[in-house]
Protein 1
Amino acid sequence: MRRLKAAMAVLLGAVTLLLAPVGVASADDNGNGLPLCSPEEICFWYNESNILEKQFYWNSGHGGYNFMGVSNGNYYVSDEPLQNNARDITNKDSECTVFVGIWHGNGNWTWESFPNDQNRYFLRTVNNRNDYHQRCGV
Amino acid sequence: MRVPALVRALCVVTGVVVAGGCTSDAEPAHTPSRVPAERMSDDVFHSDEISLIEYTKNKLIADCLERNGYPEKNQAGVQEHPGTFDYLVPKASDWATRSDEQARLLGFGENSPAEAARVMGLEEGYTKASDDCRAEAAAELGPDSVETVSQASEFANSIASEIAAVLYDGDGAEAKELTSLYVPVMDCLETKGYRPSQQGERNLEAYGAFEKKGRLEGPEPARPAPASGRITVLPPVPERRYVPAPEEAELAVSLAQCARQTGFADKEFALRLRVTRAAIGKYEAELTELTPKVEALAKRAAKLVGQ
């Protein structure tokens, strides 16, 4: 099941990236590369716990990324894809509101906005449907 | 820009339509669910006030950091990001409203906007100073400033959620109406020789729409990862023009032509306006509670930054 989810994530990711808004993105963005959500980062959480998290500095499609995990002091790539699989967000961007979007097809997106107040927010409509995030405006 | 009180009063008294200043309905224009689309971002969602509040917060933090020996943010320049909630304003899809020339130039892409320099501080002292300055800025703006901005986002997210439920997730009349609007556009594409990638598939992507096959001009901006223990100032990034692939541009032109031939944009806009207004009407109580808080906070912010 996990392999199927991961394969689906890669496929959806490729499609969504082609359709995504044009913004400055960065390949292989993992923020500062250290566990947990640090200053300047945009962080997505798999569930209510702090165990699986994926962090970014820049705009990005969510396809092709997996949540990162921390266990016994190791920082590892988990089996859980990020796309359509996130529950919460923490926006620690130093300047901007972050917008998280769902692609509906036929050119339609739904966006939710999250202020950069360092608090952790539940992704409501985009919960487990997250395709993309963008800093500062959409 | 908020609706001037005099215009609002004239609308209520006369019911006259004044250059977009009033709605043509019996209800006054300032009833949130009747605000014209072009004024919704500011008058309903408070985009102008939220962007001012956020700018003020960022400026206060930058000033505080400078006082504490970290001038980098002020040197890089604090930017205001207007139109926070513009994405909630009902409008016809961009692809449906472009001229042939615009469609040919952009295809299904858009130019990548310029970005200001970005300060990434991963030094321990800087992080502590940032936290302290953030708390100080929030206190200067007002004890409920963080909560109020959060509530404004929450309100916007409620509207987005309601629109998504009605237009995309459900199978009610509005969702069916939206789906039906694409049918004549796809029929028109077929008359121009386009075929879906899989027979019987009936959405615009099946015809290749929205697929960005082009490229952004100019070099990819450097994105050095900021190093721990240091403050990194990433240089500003200039705007980059999107250049579509020839077949992408051709399809975008055909799609824009089909949208015009079928009257898609007007019908889509009318549907989105109706659905958005209904969503706003559903959350009017929340808006009534939110509006005075945002307005008071924006006034305080304007004083703090001398606007």
Protein 2
Amino acid sequence: MGTPVTSGIVRRTPSIRVGLFLLLALGAAALFLPHFLPDPRAQPDLVSGVLLPPGWSHPLGTDHLSRDVLARLVYGGRVSLAIALGAAVLAVTLGAGVGLVAGYAGGRTDAALMRVVDAALAVPRLILLLLVVALLERIPLWGLILAIGATGWLGTSRLVRAETMRLRTLEFVRAARALGASHARILLRHLAPNVAGPLVVATTLAVGDVMLLEAGLSYLGLGVQAPTPSWGSMIFDAKPYLVTAPWVAVAPGTAILLGVFAVNLVGESLNRRFGGRWT
Amino acid sequence: MSALLEVRDLRVRIPLPAGTVTPVDGVSFSVDCGEMLALVGESGAGKSLTCLALLQLLPAAAYLASGSTALLGGQDILALRGEALRATRGKRIAIVFQDAGASLNPVLTAGDQVRETVLAHLPMTRAEARARAVSLLGEMGLPEPAVQYDRYPHQLSGGMRQRVMLAIALAAEPELLIADEPTSALDVTVQAQILELIDHERRTRGLGVLLVSHDLGVVASRADRVAVLYAGQIVEQAPTRELFGAPAHPYTRGLLAAIPRLRGPFATTRPMPGSVPDPASWPSGCRFAPRCPERFARCDALPAITQPSVNHAVRCWLAEGGS
Amino acid sequence: MTEPLLLVRNLSVEYRERPLFGHGRRVPAVEGVSLEIARGETLALVGESGSGKSSLAQAIVRLVDVSSGEIRFAGEDLLAARGENLRRLRRGVQIVFQDSATALNPRMLVGDAVAEGLIIHDLVAPGERAGRVAQLLEEVGLDQGLAGRYPRDLSGGQRQRVGIARALAVDPALLICDEPVSALDVSIQSQILALLRELQQRRGLACLFIAHDLAVVRQIAQRTMVMYLGRVVESGPTEALLASPQHPYTQALIASAPDPDPSTREAPPALRSDLSAGRPEAGCPFEPRCTHPRRDARCRTERPELNQAGGTSTACHYSP
């Protein structure tokens, strides 16, 4: 038959296990560790507690304002992960929505929608984001999520559209129409569940993407604003001290690496396992 | 005439998480020069795996169990490796699959694909090989073969593609042709012509043909002998007339009763209950017993092959005269 | 005289390519086909690839657009129906597809697939749905436990039965079967045919049975229509058609059909080419392949109409 079996896949694919484990570890750390850590905004000792190397009282040292790096890392993790997840889900949902409609409707609707996508794709995403973010001086967290999400749905929409167009011709969709199913029912009950496969992969890869994007923006000083920590902004703050106190940058850098790696591991493994074919 | 191909005790095993299965379990048959043996069975019986096994084209996880032999002109082709194997495939044994559309390279022209096969196995210059390819295409019934040579597979109809596949298969003048459901995907009017082509080659070149099919109608009109495969084993083997006229195995009888007939007086077909069992759940005794209308106590043990008459072999306790 | 359950008159179906700008080419799939099916009757549509039989079936269920012609179902104009009216009429005509990996939604449980019609048309209360599904599964010879499985766990024959149950859920009067047994092994094929015959008798179902195998058709249809390149070339009671076919194409079909009887080794019919020479613009669509002794220029220019002769209607200038 050739229909891939999704049940038990976590059990059977080691790379997914590793990736998920890492993600869960990061997530758990982000949620629970703050209890045990000092306030990330606290600047207890600006005289002699600045840029302390990792030691007993500060496992990852302190930054230039004597703030505990580990605490900032964990709090920053919450922020970075929230943005990553939020924006990724937003982007994929938008993309799936547009893709489903375009792929199902076909004809001029599809053609029009795709020309919009083509035009939007011509503008580099980073530039677009920079514009948006720079224009609005102080941008709240949800605004950032919105901006990143709203600029990232284009690729997904094409993916979903292609898959929808393929599915649309299959007999079970025709059977549903013959039974009298409304367009909404066909889209939601028949088409959407069958594009879910590629979407899961797209989402995991998008999360990784967004993490890097947010880190980049914050590094440029345009993303998450002080005093809220995020992994990217921590690197931004650590720029002047890269040589003298490298741990301040290495910690968030490593965290980003692990996060993106974990997410990509899951996504790539799923992709490879199913070879792009989910029905 | 000694047998061209003699297969003895062919066994294919596939390790699965739940345990190893043996979808081809001790298959033995032979094909003479100029003879067509039909391997008949329903889906899941193991016909295609048998064909692939002969050419060592099994999927990665599957392997041949020791003791499996296939002698082609006296030489065990299952023991071949590397260069010797490559030289045998295409040159001595050729295979044609069901869907030519999937088997042909979409980015090469039809003619080039034939020519490549010729060049791979026969000592010729490119120009000579091209000429031979053109003449082969013509022999396969393609009109204006020089023109068709430059066509791509997607520009050809299903019937034409199958003819190209045949041309590729016959290009190096093999001794044995394995045809795995060569006409199942084709219209019936085209089907008859392709089968006639294969038959013609058999008659004129002495080509031995192993025809795999689930269509007993195709088999009846073309094959010299028939072997019926069920659940990985051959349950009956006989010359065509004898198999159709006096089938000894209950499965064969059931199959024949289930075929709708176009000619002759009308009769409603009698369906056989159940379906071919999955290799993972084969019963320990006779594998057909659960569906057999004539099963009795002895069927709890796997029957051996007996020969109720010359050339006719059956795997059934009933054939031993017991009942 | 009571009106037939299904009445199709002069139906034409065209496929048209639709680029963003301008019009595309038009490809005729069905041209000027008429047919009638009475309640409880089975009509078979036979043809090879390109004959248009599937397009015709899909047009009748309004899955594709019709370019011209009329379809009347139970006395109502099926083509003019819209919205609620169309939905109501849809219940009357259902379609069963050839078994494939995609006839059933791979992400939908078997029970949900069968229940879909019940849900869409609100035919039973939610609490009673499971019971009704169990009934339907039993009616098609399946174990009720299969309702909780996915299609990939089922065999080809079982999936086909599910497809039939899905169609029966809305109590149709006409069942269109598009090559329902072509992909099945012979023993399973026989089982499904027996099931269809049984359902016909028990429910008084009319059936439009589409196939390329005449022997299969003989098992189930009282009348048969042969199609070639979108047109009807011969039509009549099945036994009469098979016993003395009039149209050269029908004769070729019968002669080509492999016979599971080794004593009849006939040569295949001489057809002038199997290569689709494209559809002729004018004249008889079969002319490029026809080997009738009286074939002439008239066959190339003038399209033959269906003429009644004896038991069957034939579209040929010189046959009978």
